[in-house]
Structure formats: C-alpha cells, structure tokens
Amino acid sequence: MEDREGLKSAYALGSGVYTAGDTLYVAGTKSLRDAWDDLKIPFGQTGRSQRYSDASRTLKAMPQIKRVVGHSLGGAVALELQKKNAGLKSVTYGAPVTSISGGERYRHLGDPVAALDFGANTSVPGGLNPHSYETMAARRHEFAKGTTMDGYRNGDNSLSLYR
C-alpha cells in the first residue's frame, strides 16, 4: 500500500486516523478543532490535541502497529507518538517541525508549514500546492508478516468505532 492511499483514507474519516496492516495513518488539519490544535504545536503541546488523543488510543488498542505515517498536523502527532513509544517508526510529510537532524521526513520546496524542517528530504512540488502529500507519499510499504490489510491477525474488526 502506498502512504498516500493510507493518508487519503485517514482524511476521509471523522477521526482522521486510519489503520492498515502494521501502519497507523494520521491526517492533518481538516476542521476548526484541528486548526485550534495546530496552535499547540509550537508550544510543545501536540500531545494535547484531539488527533493525538485519537491516534494514541488506536495505537494502544492495536499492538501490531509498528509504523505511524502523518501529514502536517498528523506528522507532528506521528513524531510525538514515536517519542513516547520505543520501537515505533514515524514517516512524515509536510510536518510542522523545526529541525536540522534527519529522519524519514519529507517536504516540498516552498511548503510554508514545513519550511523550518531543514532535516527533511526536500523535493520540488509536483503541482500548485507545495503542502500536498499526494506526489511525495507514493512510497510503498509492505505490511509486517502476520498482519493483514485491516491490521488484524484473526479478522476481528472490533475497533471500527475509531473509524
């Protein structure tokens, strides 16, 4: 599955959180509540956002999650989750990060949201919107052995309430 497919599914859900296999996808800003939560990021308060709360709850309920992919606000959430959960890998697209160190972070040249992420892999935007994840997130991820598309080993889809 490509990261952009998972992010598109996350944006389509009310919670902004979508799981597939061993990966948790976290959408960026899509509501007024999210815009309010965006203001918390520069003050180190990402963990107090609704998106973080939803993603953290899903992560706790699904121990097979080993990777978190986020765009924009979702990228900040992914990095915060990685910081608080040893062994969790994060991939971000257009995250509001101030950093010079590397990581699996991607941004487009001219992206105002990720402008201070000097450690991100930078590319030229493939369209008019430099903050879009669509052209950057074509990376394919194979799910971990033992997980399926819906993330469950036994097919029990009991977490649909988070979607």
What structural keywords apply?
single chain; 163 residues; alpha/beta; Rossmann fold; 4 helices; 6 strands; globular
Per-chain topology:
Elements: H1 3-12, E1 17-20, E2 23-26, H2 32-38, H3 50-61, E3 67-71, H4 73-84, E4 89-93, E5 105-108, E6 121-123
Parallel strand pairs: 2-3, 3-4, 4-5, 5-6
Antiparallel strand pairs: 1-2
Provide the succession of SSEs: HEEHHEHEEE
Largest sheet: 6 strands, mixed
Proportion in helices: 25-40%
Q: What spatial order of strands do you see in the largest sheet?
A: 1-2-3-4-5-6
Task: Count the E strands.
Answer: 6
Number of domains: 1
The backbone outline, from C-alpha atoms, is: globular
CATH topology: Rossmann fold
Protein described:
This protein has 163 residues and is α/β, with parallel strands linked by helices. It has one domain (3-146): 3-Layer(aba) Sandwich (Rossmann fold). It has helices spanning 3-12, 32-38, 50-61, 73-84; strands at residues 17-20, 23-26, 67-71, 89-93, 105-108, 121-123. It has a six-stranded mixed sheet. Strand 3 (67-71), helix 4 and strand 4 (89-93) form a beta-alpha-beta unit. The longest helix has 12 residues, at 50-61.
Give me a quick take on this structure.
This protein has one domain (3-146): 3-Layer(aba) Sandwich (Rossmann fold). It is built from four helices and six strands.
